[in-house]
Amino acid sequence: MLDRSAPVFVAGHRGLVGSAIFRRLSDAGFDDLRSVDRAELDLRHQSAVDAWFEEQRPRYVFLVAGTVGGILANSTRPAEFLYDNLMIHGTVVQASHRVGVEKLLYLGSSCIYPREADQPITEEALLAGPLEPTNEGYALAKIAGIKLCESYRRQYGDDFISAMPTNLYGPGDNFDLEGGHVLPALMRRFHEAKLDGAEEVVVWGSGSARREFLHVDDLADACLFLMDHYSEAGHVNVGTGTDCTIGELAGMIRDLVHPGAELAFDASKPDGMPRKMLDVSKLTGLGWSAGTPLADGLASTYEWFLEALDRGEARL
Ligand code: GDP
Prior knowledge:
Blueprint lengths: L7 E4 L4 H12 L5 E2 L11 H11 L3 E4 L7 H6 L1 H22 L3 E5 L28 H21 L3 E6 L1 E3 L12 H15 L3 E5 L5 E2 L1 E3 H14 L6 E3 L5 E2 H12 L4 E5 L8 E2 L4 H6 L7 H18 L5
Parallel strand pairs: 1-2, 1-3, 3-4, 4-5, 5-10, 6-9, 7-12, 8-13
Antiparallel strand pairs: 8-11
Helix pairs in contact: 1-7, 2-4, 4-5, 6-8, 8-10
């Protein structure tokens, strides 16, 4: 169990995941949470990160910072996704080692797995085949991050662990139509169609790709669970154990936001991986499973989006 009074650094606290981890840690009674804004510390620069760690001396680190985005952002900005993430993972892991961080959680992504991996995807599928080309840069950086944590454990005995979440959603998501992931992008597109009185809403791809969606509060809960109870080299998948087609997801969002609207599939946009669902038996075996049904998570996320729009806070 982590000591609730120890200093904890959440790297990436403004993002979808980092903000959820911040909330979860506060709820769990952690009273010394540390964070730093991007404008104050560029996590890609080793010397700056080292200096910050020297000064702050965190005992635990949640490494959830990075450049992230949906299928289009990934395929059009591969250099940024590869460079930024490689550097951020490298600097934070190395600085954590230098100052003797007791435990670090590194967060990967289900896109690390081969495009043709058997479904549901087990942890063993890592590096067993070629990657999905639309997010190869991001995936390579994430794979390097996992191997970095494993290597620091092997060479130095550092207690650095890795979790691989499936597709995430929830409050604080990026609702940008071009750069965001499917769930917030569709939520926004249906919302705008309702306001404009439009009866047709565009959904990228064929609609037949399958994805699994995990509420980010469930992920944050799983991350704390792993930090409290897991100390081994192997990475752990975090998901719900169920998936749906993009067409089905679009239908659920339509029924919630703009009932009766028509779906128009745009086949000029890529589907990406045909299916991406994680095998979560390792994590359930450890004693954790996800609690938020997709319909409930969609409803509360839409509520958050409407409130954030009112406050001018939604990332559009
Ligand atoms: P991925 O899981 O890395 O492929 O990430 P995305 O969330 O970006 O895309 C998931 C799937 O949703 C892909 O098959 C997309 O083609 C499909 N999709 C449908 N409409 C949209 C949309 O408006 N935005 C995004 N990003 N994807 C969409």
